[in-house]
Amino acid sequence: MSTGNYNDVTARLYTDIGFFTCDPDIGADVSDLFNALTGYSTKQEYRKLLVAPGVMRKEILNRIEREIERHQERGDGYLAFKMNALVDRACIQALYRASQAGVKVDLQVRGICCLRPGVPRVSENITVTSIVGRFLEHPRLYYFHNGGEDEMLLGSADLMPRNLDRRVEQLFPVEDARLRDAVRAQILGIHLRDNVQARRLLPDGSYERVHPEPGEPELDSQSWMIEHRGIWHSEE
To answer: Structural domains in the chain?
Structure first.
């Protein structure tokens, strides 16, 4: 499984996440998806993959609503998404509802973002940043705290009608707790803490550069990834 393709033309510019699994359900889902692509199946419901067009938007919305419910029960609701574009109206409205319910939402959207963060009584619990640096970061990551039963989805699908309705896309889960924690801490978390390349989206639609707080060290997420590119292997 991967968040992008293996292309020697873009390999020096694009970044992606590759994921090897022997999970039989994911393997069966991939087989079913290829059968659908070749016309041998009209399947839309899958075991573990979220596939578009079909169920992806519905499943993302269901998970946002679940986070609202968990927050009302436990008070620890948290969503963190990293993508290249956020345009889909239904997803934006769901994120607004999450913010209004008190769920903390961190979004990193490299390109176009139609959501407006920091609007009182609408999106004051939402933060949006953007990083445009040396690399074009291609992975899309969707993290749901889910009351401590964390869920992480990876893929190449932005939350746009183009991706959700007019392209074949898939998101896959990272179910191994060690790998999920590593993706959250060493990829998603590092990028959300960037205070060198990041820019923060303001309620009026403009951006301001993010600077380190007094006494806070500088963190350039892309440089950090280069310097620590062997970190997972060194843990073995």
So the answer is: 10-228 (3.30.870.10)
